[in-house]
Amino acid sequence: MMTSLILPCYNPAPGWEQTVLSSYSSFCKQVQQQVELVIVMDGASATVTQDSVLFLKKSIPNVSVVEYTENRGKGYALRQGVKAATGAIIMYTDIDFPYSQDSMQVVYETLNKNEADVAIGIKNEAYYAHVPLLRKAISKYLRMLIRLFLSMPITDTQCGLKGFKKEVAPLFLQTTIDRYLFDLEFVRNCFKSKVYRVKAIPVALNENVHFRTMNYRILLPEMLNFIKLLFK
């Protein structure tokens, strides 16, 4: 089955195109196929140049680039990527490929072997050893809120590695949150639909992952999004 891999891109670290090429090539070798790569440019970025995009287009035959000028958020970007994807399996992760290649392969194999319709990456305990203290606290707090108010079997919804079969794409496109809590909205939609088989996949971070400084101005809007989900 053809697989599509979607990468939302906004202000990536310098040299990002080399990281994409190297990690994408490794993933193709692991799954033994040429994966369709969809890169979504979520607004203009200083580190994204015509040369970097041209480099990827020349290096990867199966790449397509979706572009728009205004930064709209990760949720919005991924919806554009899902619309463009043609694979029977659709996966997404971050532009710096923060999760191990083994983790990505397990997500792929879970879908390819028909063990689930939706594969949700969840953070293992070692993950939190890499995470800044405040980010760790926010993650734990959100999981507590999900447990208390949404009663979902999976409380770790924000891991940036997920995959699903093509038939689940319309459900993903029903999400309305443009920024970080789109993940929670999608996972909740999956459980509410009672149609698709959802499986949690423990995933590991790469050792060289560096976390960006969190923009805490988004916390209030995201809390409002959480409240909206409670009444949706």
List the helices and strands and how they pair.
Layout: E1 3-9, H1 16-31, E2 36-42, H2 50-59, E3 63-68, H3 74-84, E4 89-92, H4 101-112, E5 118-123, H5 133-149, E6 162-165, H6 169-173, H7 182-193, E7 198-203, H8 219-230
Parallel strand pairs: 1-2, 1-4, 2-3, 5-7
Antiparallel strand pairs: 4-6, 5-6
Helix pairs in contact: 1-2, 1-4
Question: Describe it for me?
Answer:
With 232 residues, this protein is of the alpha/beta class. The chain has a single domain (3-230), classed as Spore Coat Polysaccharide Biosynthesis Protein SpsA, Chain A (Alpha-Beta Complex). The chain has eight helices and seven strands, in the order E-H-E-H-E-H-E-H-E-H-E-H-H-E-H. It has helices at residues 16-31, 50-59, 74-84, 101-112, 133-149, 169-173, 182-193, 219-230; strands spanning 3-9, 36-42, 63-68, 89-92, 118-123, 162-165, 198-203. Strands 3-2-1-4-6-5-7 form a seven-stranded mixed sheet, with helices on both faces. It is globular, with a radius of gyration of 17 Å. The chain starts with a strand and ends with a helix.
